[in-house]
Every structure is written in structure tokens, then in C-alpha cells.
Amino acid sequence: MKPQFRSGLRPRSLFLSSAIALAAAGVACAAPAELGQPVPPSNPQLVTPQIEQKVDALLAKMTLAEKIGQLVQYNDQGSSAPTAADADSAIAVNPETRDHVDALQLARKGELGSMLNVIGAAKTRRFQEAAMHSRLGIPILFGADVIHGYRTIYPVPLGLSASWDPQLVQDVSHMAAVEATTAGVKWFYSPMVDISRDARWGRSTEGAGEDAYLGSAMARAYIRGYQGTDLSKPESVAASVKHFAAYGAAEAGREYNTTDMSDIRLRQVYLPPYKAAVEAGAATMMSSFNALNGVPATADPYLMTDILRKEWGFDGFVVSDYTAVMELTHHGIALDAATATQKALDAGVEVDMMSHFYDTQIPTLLKEGKLSMATVDEAVRRVLRVKFALGLFEHPYARGTEVTRAVAAHRPLARRAAEESFVLLKNGGHGAAPVLPLSSGVKKLALIGPLADNAAEMQGAWGGAQHQPDVVTLRNGLAARMKQRGGELLYAQGTDILTDSEAGFAAAKQAAEQADVVVMALGESSSMSGEAGSRAHLGLPGNQQKLLEAVVATGKPVVLLVFSGRPLVLDWADRHVPAIMETWFPGTEAGNAVANVLFGDVAPSGKLTMSFPRAVGQEPLYYNQFPTGRPAGDADLSKPPEGATRFISRYIDVPNSALYPFGWGLSYTTFAYSGVHVSRARVPLAEANRPDAKDLVTVTATVKNTGERAGTEVVQLYVRNLGASVEQPVRSLQGFERVSLKPGESKQVTFHLGFPELSFWNVKSQQVIEPTHYTVWVGGSSLADQQADFDVTP
Ligand code: BGC
After folding, report:
1. Which residue of 2, 222, 286, 319 has the smallest Cβ count within 10 Å?
2. Is the pLDDT of residue 22 over 60?
3. CB 383 within 8 A of CB 187
4. DSSP-based three-state secondary structure for 750
């Protein structure tokens, strides 16, 4: 039985009052674990006295085999030959494992705790009935990679993050949970909150980009959307926050590669979104594939026990990534299955996804005294807790009418999500006026490119269980709109995504020549990003660049739509194409959303959450870099170095800056900033250096719509801290707000800076505020230049 405070009886304030007392005494703020205190539960719903009693009672009845069963997870491979009906009831990812187990048989024996990527009311029922008729009737938890929609697909997470709209993220996540629970899925392997600063890494598409502050806001939003306020509600699903931890720092952007970083970087950049998700009540976590500082995460007690459980008070369970326990042998830290099992379990990984190690190894490890029964019981307890909290024992089967296609009533939200995700990177004039929005004078519009009429690719890397016929392609969306306007859409594919053939170029050029404006839909295939989608070249794949150049050479105004799961190198396009919009992979409503934005029914409002490089060699590239001893200052880095401009931190062949930086994105109107003001110039350290210090400085600024159309601006607040014991980034995002303004309208925006926003991690792994100088900037991107200053005084 857990200590009483786990039942919510211990007030959180005990931790705070101790920390405050220490801070007042001039001691750096320490985590509760460091103070030798138990931490409050991360999700009180998981640790109610009722749930703990139920878990105790059940545990007392379970055989070892039944306990181990709760700790293993399989897909349905090998359980029965797939039937035609099954084709629609699994999400296929990952290679097949060597070991096939009979999952149905295990379920009948009560020895299968969870299953992955088995979907559909009938299929989940087949396995669930078997489990419910087993000796103890413990339900199976069905988990699936529902990453950006179940049947109604919305933009890939990187695109979604470009909305800077946590409420939208919460709403679409909830929508996915509503759909998937009708198919028996009660657990999503999402959100992926790995910070990604390297566009080569294909999984950048699955996260919220390069920034910890924004990533944390998005992490909270996903948890709220999936889990709601009550896990036991029929439409709630448990989230699995992944991949713990620092997977996004894979060296050279190469998938599954190792990571190595200081504790400061880990805590300041990579951990915050996971922590935010845990604080928001995430029920489960997934361990990552990578090693961190030499220890594979799946066997790392520092991550899984010291940080996750002791510091953050996590009460849910950790599932390994797919075969990650087995992969400990490939990492070379376990020479056999037994050692791998022992290391993973001891570290705090409760569930073995697909390795087939826990069930084969635990009995012997126990017999040999290499593993304690207490460790096994604690692991089972954590799994059962989540099942009880989800209400699975009472409601083990799919709820309501099964959703098998995109839901009409969900399309408007999916469409809005796509519209908000688009980032207008450039909108130059072809002649006088900007090309976008398309004017009423455009009677013939040419649509060219391999993504123009491509339902399959609109889904993105994790298209859930989408049906291609549900997707509105660009061609469909734009053709309908041109017809309404009494105009005509000309279409030519031009080329494939990856080919050398130029057979379609002539038709493409011909369509362009006949049109008033050309829209080109170019980019990656959805499988070029996502898992195992690392790329060393970040240009337009195949011969699409050549096609783009050929069409631009016709002299017609071109709008380039870039479909991709990551930042691409668009330097040529930036110099030669008047209008460029990043459209990611927009999902089911792709064509309608693109039409709405191109024709100006909706003004683009997205802002980048990952920097777009000028050249691959700049990667990893991120705005919140550290200063160097030889800063480039005002030197013109577009020219080769000469004299004093050589021995500074720079490339000799490309500027340091991003082509399109973090936070960048245009609208159809313009915004101006003024009056950046801080509420006070000095803050005493004793007041500031307390974890509960909330509103130490209030920053205000005025944003005005200076154009002729309504628009939405993402107002961003950046902070720099100079003079600390540890060097700090040149600026860091610490606040943002979406503001909609009519032409000529202004609004004052207010941000509150407290300990979380102003503190940093020192060399002793303590989160502190020191007496230092702060500068804040408010503006529409990470280039914001309106500033104010204050000091934290000793
Ligand atoms: C991926 C995870 C995914 C899991 C289950 C792994 O290969 O890394 O993100 O949730 O497979 O499909």
C-alpha cells in the first residue's frame, strides 16, 4: 500500500512552504525529492484510496503469470490468420518481430495486459472478451498510434504547433479520442513532445518543434484533449507521452541515433515538455530508443526513476518503445535477454512492448534473486491503476457507434486546424500587389505538382486509420472554388515526388502559360518524414526543383505550396517565387483549407515552430542559441569573410541566420508593435527566487493591425538574461498570445513573468534565479526588436 499522501491527503503546500523557506534563506530552489520529501501525485485520479484498495485486492489474487501478463504488450500478429475484415483493424507500423506469440491465447489465460495498434470495435471485442472471461477478468488496454487524428485527420503535429493555438490542439485531440474510443482504443501513443532542432530528423513532424516553452504549452493541450478532466469518461483516452527522453537530439538527425548533452541542456531544453505533460496528469509515458549520455533511456534509472518518479511524482506507468527492451542488447549494455529485462524493469520501465523479454525472463530472474517481487508488484500496480482510472473494468468494450470514416461534423474543426497551421513564408508582389490572396481577376488558375491531386499524401506520416476517399485533395478543393467564381482550374501533375522523368514538364508549362496565376503543390511524400524518415538532403525531392524553375521561367505569377513534415531548404524559391506557403500535411480537409486561405476567406496566421535553414549544413539550427565569445554582431554574413569579419563565429559560405526563423509567418495584413513596457525596473532576489513566484514582472505591449484586412497575429514575448553564473540563450520564448484584429484596431497584450519564466538551471542542476539583467522583446517573430529591461537585484 502506498503512503497516505498519495491518496491526495498530503497538501502540495508542504513542498512549497519548505522550498520557500529555503529560498528565503538564500538556498537555490531544490526539487522535493532533493529535500528528502515525498512528492505530490502527478495525477490524483490515478491514486485515489478506492483505486489503491482495488489494486491491492487484485494483486493479492494474481499468480505470477497473470502479473507478468500485465507487463507485456503484443499486436495481433500470430493470433490468427488475418481475414479480409481485419485489413481495416490494424495500424501497420514497425517491422515484424522475430517472435510471434498467440495473443488471443494469452488473452484467454489472462496473460495479456495490453495490445498495440489493434483497432476496430469487433476486433478489440474479440480480444477483450477473451480477457474478460479469463480467471480474474482483467481488461486489456488497447493502445494505438493515433497521432493526428483517428478517422478525421488533422495536420501533422509540427503543422498543428504552427497554429500557436493550444485550445485548438486540445479540441482536435479530444475529437480524435471521441472517434477512436468507438473502436475500442483507450490509449494513444501521443503526444510526442521531443524537442527537435534538427530538420534532418524525420520525426520532427511528430512534435511541436524546437522550443521548450511552446512545446510545453502544446504538451499540456494534448493531455487535456485526450484525457479530459476525468479519465473514466467514455470518450477519454490515456495519453502516452513520448519518447522519454531527448530522442529529438539524435546526433546528425539520424533516426534512432545516440544523444549526449549536459544536464543543463537536458533540463532547460528537452525535459520541460515531458514535465509539463506529467504535471497535466499524463497517465503513461513511453521510453525512447536512444541512449542519453551513454545509457539507453529504456534502462536509465536517472530518467525513469530519479527524474520521472522521484522528482516529478509520476504515478502512471512507462511502456518501452517497440522492442526497445530487446534493443538494449544491440546497445551493448546487456549481453542477454535476462540482463536487458532486469535493467529495464529496475530502471522503471513497466511494460515491454513487443520484445517478448519480460514474459520469458522475469520468472528466472525472480528465482535467481536478480529481480525482486516488489519491483514486479510495483510495475503491475502502476498498470492496474491506469486501467481502474480509465473505468476499463466497468466498460471494457468500444463505446457507441463505431466511427469508420471521417466524420462530417468533425470536418469544420479539421479544416480550421489546417487553415491555422499554414505559414505564409513570403508574399511578394508580381507587379504591384502581393500575389495572395488571389484576386477576383484570376479567371484561370493552374494547379501543378505531384501533391496537387494526391489524397494519399495529404494524411502525413501517421494518418491513423484514415480512408483516402474521405480526403479533399487540392484539385477538388480548388476546382470547386474556381467553378463558384465562374473561373476554371487547369491541372497538370508535372512530375512525381521522386523521379527523374521530365515527361510531364511540357504539359505543366503549357497549363502555366494559359493561366493567370499558377499554384504549385510540391514537397515530400508523407513517408519521407515520421519514424525512420531522416534525410540528409533537405531540398525538394526528385526533380521538383527543376519543374519549379521551368514553371517560374514562364513568367507567370507562382504561388508555391510546400507540403513537408519538416523545414526544407527553400533558398532558390525564396529568391525567385513571389509567394510561398508552408502547408505541411493538412489532413482530410486539405483542399478546402487551402482554397479558403488562397482565396482570402481566411487570412493565414501560422508561425514557424522550427527554423527553416538556408543550407543543410546549418543544422541543428534553432533561434535560442547560446552566445559565443566571437559573436558575428553586425557583420554582413552574406559576403565571404574579409579581414575582421573572418575570425568570428560564422560560416564562410552562408549566413548564420535561418532563411525563415522561428516564430516567422505573414498574414494578408500587417501588424505594428509599440509601447513595450515592464511593470518595474528592479525585482529583489529574495522575492524572485521562489518556485511559487508568479507575477514578478508584467510586460505590456501594443499590437496594431496596420493593414486593410482583418487578421490574427501571434504576439510573442522573448526574454534574455545576462550576467548569470551559466551563459543563457540569446533569447527565449516565454509567452505568446493569438490576437485577432480588425483593420486599424489595436490591443494591449499583457504577459506575466514569474519564476518559471525567469529561472534557469545552474551547474548543480538546480533551477534558480540569480541577480542578473533581463531584456524582454515583444513582436511577431523571434526577430522581435521592441524591447524593455529590468534587473533582479541582490
Ligand atoms: C515508435 C513509437 C510508436 C511505436 C508503436 C515505435 O517504433 O517509435 O512512436 O508509438 O512504435 O507503434
Report:
1. 2
2. no
3. no
4. strand
Q: How far apart are CA 416 and CA 237, in angstroms?
A: 23
Residue given cell 489465460 in the structure block: 109
At 451-499, the pLDDT tens digits run 999 999 999 998 878 889 999 999 999 999 999 999 999 999 999 999 9
Name the amino acid, one letter, at 59.
L
**Whose CA is closest to 576, among 604, 594, 553?**
553
Is the model's pTM score more than 0.85? yes
Alpha carbons 71 and 38: distance in angstroms, whole number: 26
At 767, is the pLDDT very low, low, confident or very high (cuts 50, 70, 90)?
A: very high
Residue nearest to ligand 1 atom 2, measured at CA: 321
- Residues 170-197: pLDDT tens digits? 999 999 999 999 999 999 999 999 999 9
Of 321, 352, 354, the one to substitute when testing ligand 1's pocket (max ligand atoms within 8 A of C-beta) is: 321
**Predicted confidence band at 306 (pLDDT cuts at 50, 70, 90)?**
very high
Residue 716: left (phi > 0), alpha (psi -120 to 50), or beta?
A: beta
**Angstrom distances, CA of residue 83 to CA of 79, 89, 114, 123, 566:** 12, 10, 22, 11, 37
Q: Let me know if 486 is exposed, middle or buried by CB neighbors in 10 A (0-12, 13-18, 19+).
A: exposed
Could you give the angle at the alpha carbon of 221 between the alpha carbons of 220 and 222, nearest 5°? 95
Residue environment code for 25-54, b if the CB has 16+ CB neighbours within 10 A, otherwise e: eeebbbbbbbeebbbbbbbebbbbeebbeb
Greatest CA span in the chain, whole angstroms?
81
Is 785 catalytic? The answer is no
Contacts of 309 (CB under 8 A, 6+ apart): 348
Distance of alpha carbon 334 from alpha carbon 327, whole angstroms: 9
The CA 323 to ligand 1 mean position distance, Å, reads 9
489-539 pLDDT, tens per residue?
999 999 999 999 999 999 999 999 999 999 999 999 999 999 999 999 999
- The predicted pLDDT at position 644 comes to 86
Ligand 1 contacts CB of residue 321 (under 6 A): yes
Q: What is the rounded CA–CA span in Å between residue 485 and residue 516?
A: 14
Ligand 1 centre to CA of 243 (Å) is: 9
Return the half-sphere exposure (C-beta side, CA atoms, 13 A cut-off) of residue 91: 26
CA–CA distance, 362 with 444 (Å, rounded to integer) = 68
DSSP run (H or E) holding 69: helix 64-70
The active-site residue out of 321, 352, 453, 470 is: 321
Give the pLDDT band (50/70/90) at residue 433.
Answer: confident
Nine-digit cell string for 760: 534557469
For ligand 1, is residue 322 a contact (CB within 6 Å)? yes
Residue with cell string 529495464? 344
Which among 75, 114, 142, 145 is the best mutation to test ligand 1's pocket, defined by most ligand atoms within 8 Å of the CB? 145
From the CA of 321, how far away is ligand 1's center (Å)?
A: 6
Q: Please, are residues 391 and 362 in contact by the beta-carbon 8 Å criterion?
A: no
* 632 burial level (CB within 10 Å; 0-12, 13-18, 19+): middle
CA distance 468 to 466: 6
d(CA 439, CA 154): 28
Model pLDDT, residue 17 = 37
